[in-house]
Structure formats: C-alpha cells, structure tokens
Amino acid sequence: LQILGNVSEFQRVVNVLQEGVDFDIDVNASVFETNIRVVGGLLSAHLLSKKAGIEVEVGWPCSGPLLRMAEEAARKLLPAFQTPTGMPYGTVNLLHGVNPGETPVTCTAGIGTFIVEFATLSHLTGDPVFEDVARKALKALWKNRSDIGLVGNHIDVLTAKWVAQDAGIGAGVDSYFEYLVKGAILLQDKELMSMFLEYNKAIKNYTKFDDWYLWVQMYKGTVSMPVFQSLEAYWPGLQSLIGDVDNAMRTFLNYYTVWKQFGGLPEFYNIPQGYTVDKREGYPLRPELIESAMYLYRATRDPTLLELGRDAVESIEKISKVDCGFATIKDLRDHRLDNRMESFFLAETVKYLYLLFDPDNFIHNDGSVFDVVLTPYGECVLNAGGYIFNTEAHPIDPAALHCCRKRKEEQWEVEDLMREFYLLKKNKKFALKRAADHGEGESAKDPEDAPSEKGGEMRNSKKSSHSLLSCPSQSFNSKLAVLGQVFLDNN
C-alpha cells in the first residue's frame, strides 16, 4: 500500500492497528516470524508513513504510534534471548515468556535474523537492549562455527551443541547470511561484513560446485545433499550487494533454467538428476529468485532479468490465479494447486516484481533527492535511497537511524561550543572582560594565563564544556568531559 500510494487505505490500516492491537495475549509465537513480519512491518510502515501522506506526530521519526507498537512487540520477544549463550529460543509466549517445556533447539536463521529490525528499533527509541541481544546472538553463532568455517542447520541454544550439522545457504540458515550483509550495510559495520566474507570463503571452498551450492557436513565438508532449494535463490541478490556480480549472474542463470523447466522453482531440485525431489515438488509462489532479479537488474541492467520477471508474471497468472487470489502450486510437474495463499506472496513476490519493472520508484532513489525533517535532535535527512529490505521485504530507510540519537544532539552542541570558543578567541578583549566580571581579573591580566584561568571560571559555571574543550593544558580525562559526562581512560 505504501509503494502503490494508496494513502486512504494505508491510513485506515494505521487507525485499525492503533485501536485494536494487543500483544498481552496467551499465545505461543515464533520469535523469528514475529520479528520479520510484525516488528519489521511496523518499523517500515512507521518510517514510510509521512511519505505515504499520513499526518505524523511531533518528534517523528523518533516517535509515533507504529514505532511504539513495534517496540511493544519486540519487548515480548526479549525473554527468548535470556539463555546462557545469548541465542534465542525459537518460540515465546507473548504473555508468560518462554514456556518451561520449550525446546532449546533453534534453526540458525532463527538466531541470526534480528539485527536489521532490532538495531533500527534501538536507534529510533534510544534503548540499546534490542541491538545488544541481536549482536550477542550473531556473535554466538560466529563463535560456534566449525573449524572449516561453516555453520550447521540447528543448534541447542542452551549448550551451543549443533543438532543438525548440514551446512549450506538454504532453509534454516539463509537469512543469517542475509542479515550479516544487510546489517553491515545498514549500520556501516565492518565486523559484520568481515564475518560474512569469512563465511563466503568457506561456502565457496566447500559447498560450491559449478555455480551451484550444495549441502555439506559442517565439520568435514563432504556432500550430504546434492540439491538446490528454492529458498537459496536469494543468494545471487546477496552477492550483488557485496559487488560479486559475475558470480551472482552465473548462479542466477542456473536457477533460471530450473524456473523455465517447470514454470516455477520446486522446493527441492536434485542437481545431478535434473529433476524435482519426491514430496518437494511444490512452489508456494516464493519471492527469492525475483528478489535476486531485482537486485541484479539494478546492478547490471541486463535484459535477461526482465525476461525472468515477465516469465514469472505469466506463470503466476496462468498457473496459480484463482477466484480468490493466487494459490500455492502443489506440484510443478502437473501444476496441481493447493487451497492456500502464503502471506509472503503479497509481502514479497508481488512487491519485488513491481519494483523490478518500476525503475523510477522512490525505493530506487540514488540520493539525488531527499527530504529534510526536523526532529528533537535537529534536522535530519530522510528518503535519500539506499533502503535495506528486511527478509520479509519491508524497506528500512538507513538514514533514519541517524535521526534520533542523543549522541547526535551532543555532537551538534559541541560544534556550537567550538564555534563560540573560536569567536571568543578572535576577540580577546571580550574574553578577558568576561573573566574579570567573574572576579578573576588579576589572573586575566596575563594574556598567557588567560586560557587556563578562563577555564577555571567556566568549570564553576553550568557551561563547563566551553573550557574543557578549549584548554590545551588539561589532562586527557578532563578533555573528554562533555556536557557534564566524564569518559575515563579505562571506560
């Protein structure tokens, strides 16, 4: 609705959310799914609400009803992270926390897919707890990788023992790698990108065969499943984000041949046999290959990618369209349908198709246009592009993360103080007169002593940071006192 510009409908949805959402309910919820769908969706809608024509409250984007709802939902997930390893349980009860009998086994993606939403939430609200738990979970997975640099499929979050030791880029692992890259871009974080690049080396060394990616044993690197999963089709798009476009295109073309063979991507595809895997012949209208096409087209403008988009539209229209929507394809061999439509079809598949064919959409902004908004911390630039999509395709504006930090406010105050200091320095008579007015005229008579004496005067005033920033003879500790807060050497 945001992308299509349906303002009235978007406003209606916002009003319904404000009136009827209650997270204090006795329901067991997936921590992973609640984060990417509910928290991510609310954050994205919050950040795009002004652009969608909604009248926002004073202080936006640092406040707002959708942001408060996102925070409330995320707080319901925090008990899941209270484990010895910092890796979360897979399920949490929204009213009571983690159930006593909850299984400690969680998939890798269910542990490593929080940094985009939780860091955004921390930056907008000023509460670091969300980003902290997401980072701790990421580092726990990194710490427990195998000696050859791979992670398995499922792990015990209490003991950090790997329960499923198949390593690959697909189901159960996929969005962990995705969030290392997207988190690194969103936060300009070298550590997260370094983690991914190390994983990428191991993945190329042990799982890549002729531009396909197989499943291997995480400790030995021996092939365990020579299959391609439809969920793996996000990988070329991820490669394009780190600039590895040539490899991305070769892998994408492999996946595209499978699409053309069946009119969609089967859940599992046996690479040596070149055919579907038993009981995995379905296609629930997943978005991953179209997602990669959109990213790669932005990087290359290769018309082959538009051909995939056209094929996808034609296949979906011809095979899966029914009276009430678009049905999951139960079996790609004969195109039998199932009586269901997955939510990600609308949230992701259609959205990525739309963006693939809409080159002028604001999402593709290259920074040449932007909006300036006034926040409690000063002016802030928004909507300049570079949007990061969470794994449910909810776009996050990375510029918003710099709008609501107290550190930003302090930075501006320090800059104002420095400008004032240099202005006073140009007019020594004015500076000396100020010192004399405060009963320190004798010391101020000596121009060489004036700075330190002026510093003494200012230390006794409410605006002590003037002199603390300006006096060259002060200790290292004192120089780092800003706005009354002292940062010590060992801090």
UniProtKB/TrEMBL annotation:
The active site is at E33, D174, E267, E288. It comes from the Eukaryota. Signal peptide: none annotated. Pfam families: Glyco_hydro_47 (PF01532). Residues 435-460 have a biased composition (Basic and acidic residues). Its cofactor is Ca(2+). Its EC number is 3.2.1.-. Belongs to the glycosyl hydrolase 47 family. This is alpha-1,2-Mannosidase. The gene is EDEM2.
